[in-house]
Write a structure and sequence with these properties.
- The protein is α/β, with parallel strands linked by helices.
- 46% of the residues lie in helices and 15% in strands.
- It has a 5-stranded parallel sheet with strand order 2-1-3-5-4, with helices on both faces.
- Helix 1 (11-23) packs across helix 5 (112-124).
- The mean pLDDT is 98.
- It binds D-ribose.
Length: 142
């Protein structure tokens, strides 16, 4: 299952990305928000972050205006490795090097086509599991 959340700024892009995830056959759980009415991004980052940290979800997707507020909040939860992405190289690297488990996107930063591309790379790139990367991630968890 992919846990998904947004604030008002990310709501419309989130709906597009949920459609894409479902087309690809993923089970999706949407933790809100449910409209473009103003709301607070930490409320949704917290729910999605806990779903990932508690292994209810295999990965998380969070969308706000920039992706930054979502990532700051999600990264406070132990076990979450959230990355804000706007380029393909970083999308691949954060999976293969950092084993990132939450993707944060900015609806005011990337268009829908770029967001879909970043999401696909994020989902399709495995963690490299190299010794160096594993050691560094275990230091992050400490
Ligand atoms: C909302 O205006 C905006 O601050 C929020 O979506 C996000 O970009 C915060 O990081």
């Amino acid at each position: 299952m992919i846990a998904v959340g947004s604030d008002h700024a990310g709501y419309e892009l989130k709906l597009e990305l949920i459609g894409h995830l479902k087309e690809r056959g993923f089970e999706v759980k949407d933790y809100g928000t449910d409209s473009t009415d103003s709301c607070d991004y930490p409320d949704f980052a917290k729910k999605v972050g806990h779903a990932v940290a508690d292994a209810e979800a295999e990965k998380g997707l969070l969308v706000c205006g920039t992706g930054i507020g979502m990532s700051i909040c999600a990264n406070k939860i132990k076990g979450v490795r959230a990355s804000v992405l706007s380029d393909e190289f970083s999308a691949e690297a954060t999976r293969s090097h950092n084993d990132a488990n939450v993707l944060c996107l900015g609806a005011r930063v990337v268009d829908t086509a770029k967001a879909v591309k970043l999401l696909d790379i994020f989902l399709d790139t495995p963690f490299s599991e190299g010794e160096n990367h594993c050691r560094r991630i275990s230091k992050l968890e400490d």
